[in-house]
Amino acid sequence: MRVNMINPDAIFEGSHLWSPEVREERARAHGIRVEELEDFYRRRNLLKTRVTAEDVAESAAWLASDRSAKTTGCIITTDGGVREAFPR
Length: 88
Known about the structure:
Layout: E1 4-8, H1 20-30, H2 37-43, H3 53-64, E2 74-78
Parallel strand pairs: 1-2
């Protein structure tokens, strides 16, 4: 038996997790405007890139394929390399 996990972060497009209320709360917590939120999360990752649902799907497709047949106990972080410190 194999057990793996995908750990995405800040997937905005098409996400029901980022409701207007959640966006407002997260923007307030970081001291930024709601309009700056997506860019804030993009800038906080090491690759400075936007992570999409398609990126997460690619990770899932790899795990479901024979190419990952010898991979288990793995957490694939599909997040652009989130840093501990948040930019301002």
